[in-house]
Amino acid sequence: MAPTPTANLLQLLAEESDNAAVKDEKAQSKFTIPDIVIGRLPVYLRTLRLLADEGREVTSSQELGEHLGISSAQIRKDLSHFGEFGKQGTGYNISFLCQQLQKILNVDRIWPVILVGAGSLGTAIANYQEFESSGFRIVSVMDEDPQKIGQPIGDGLQIEDFADLKQRLVISNAQIAVMAVPAHAAQRVAGQLIEAGLNSILCYAPITLAVPPRVRVEYIDPVIHFQHMTYYLR
Amino acid sequence: MAPTPTANLLQLLAEESDNAAVKDEKAQSKFTIPDIVIGRLPVYLRTLRLLADEGREVTSSQELGEHLGISSAQIRKDLSHFGEFGKQGTGYNISFLCQQLQKILNVDRIWPVILVGAGSLGTAIANYQEFESSGFRIVSVMDEDPQKIGQPIGDGLQIEDFADLKQRLVISNAQIAVMAVPAHAAQRVAGQLIEAGLNSILCYAPITLAVPPRVRVEYIDPVIHFQHMTYYLR
DNA sequence: TAGATTGTTAATCGATTAACAATC
DNA sequence: TAGATTGTTAATCGATTAACAATC
């Protein structure tokens, strides 16, 4: 067996040496953490911060679970993928666990974000003050409407020409884009963002984007939530 | 065994008569459709409508799956919970399947929705024109800020006093609320909405609400999506 | 020490997928 | 008829939970 590609994984997984003799892909999928677990970490983090704001110093998987409506076992299991963060008998130190989750999620820094679309939704997003404390800063708001280009928006920004995307990206170094554009423009805009090198998109347009596998897209569409709720209504 | 409560289920499940002798709760949980399936139906519907807009008349589970990045088997399985909507060899008639999904999701009508919070996000939501075609109409926008009350908003609405919630609900008959309020106000506002009789809430505030079991809450928080994405970034 | 709570294992539960007979 | 695609079954895969030894 070729030693080199496996060696990398072995470093990452020092304590897993027993099972390390498996094939590379297997190893990947075996030790890779389920995306569904990753998806819950931001919710844990948000809740922990709320507790910290209330002046609390420790909590338990049980308390967190009650807050969130999930089982304490799930919380402990989820965290156990990343290490041991608690103390038997006492629980978790809130600010320590916050720090750890921020590191895991890579939000122990500020990520520059590009916002495309300066309609009323885009404006609301640009105005939202709380991104910064969560690890994100909107560094650029772009639109295609000549009427809008040059107008002030958000906190000291000016609407820029989406045609200048590539130049702006060189300066901002953003890897993340938010799309607040009409559905009919969304696929084209996504294509341009991807072509310019972006690989993470948060899409507010009510459409599933066709993107290459390297690009991650998440969606926000209130209609999907409404229609989910009405299934249970009469 | 008491015949009456079971009888109801038996009607609903005529063809399932073999297994119908189980306990009520069991029967419920056995024949109840998984929430995760319900959650995909609006996405199917959205995609089908897009195809319809392109003038397409039929599609297949394979084509839908490719659009959405899921397996054709999953789509067929999901739909099979509700009936048979396709034709072997040809696939699904798009407009027929749209109609059926709309019925299943109860969006073959217009649901009145109350919007609480007339800040910039609330304003963006109030301005959004596309709810109507998906089954929803914002009938009331409320806020607590005396400066805002009385101002025009959205399509011919006026911002109303949130203190008048109960009277407004009597008129509008809304069962669904959207909360676009600051995090610090969200739990209180939710309590008031629930106390007034609402049972479905779409919450844009970055907080998990404590609500009684009869109330369904869905959340939209861009930060959760951002932090999910940054896990995969360097 | 007694009580509490973790991290982890094994069992359970549920969701997804592959495969195929039925049939358009 | 030949080809395509459904609806459904059974197998697989993965996620959640219950339980408990370890230990603070």
- Report the uncertain regions of chain A: 1-29
Number of helical segments with 4 or more residues of chain A: 11
Mean pLDDT of chain A: 89
Note the main sheet of chain A: 7 strands, mixed
Major β-sheet strand ordering of chain A? 6-7-5-4-8-9-10
Distance between the termini of chain A: 62 Å
Rg on CA atoms of chain A, Å = 21 Å
Please write the string of helix (H) and strand (E) elements of chain A.
HHHEHHEEHEHHEEEHEHEEH
- Form type of chain A: globular
**Which two chains touch over the largest interface?**
A-B, 59 and 59 residues
Helix-and-strand structural type of chain A: alpha/beta
Quick structural overview:
The structure is a homodimer of 234-residue chains. With 234 residues, chain A is an alpha/beta fold.
What are the salient characteristics of this protein?
homodimer; 234 residues; alpha/beta; 3-stranded antiparallel β-sheet; 11 helices; 10 strands; DNA-binding
Topology:
The structure is a homodimer of 234-residue chains.
Chain A: H1 3-12, H2 24-31, H3 35-53, E1 58-59, H4 61-68, H5 72-80, E2 86-87, E3 91-93, H6 94-104, E4 111-116, H7 120-127, H8 131-134, E5 136-143, E6 152-153, E7 157-161, H9 165-172, E8 176-179, H10 183-195, E9 200-203, E10 216-219, H11 222-230
Parallel strand pairs in A: 4-5, 4-8, 5-7, 8-9, 9-10
Antiparallel strand pairs in A: 1-3, 2-3, 6-7
Helix pairs in contact in A: 3-6, 4-5
The structure holds a DNA duplex (24 and 24 nucleotides).
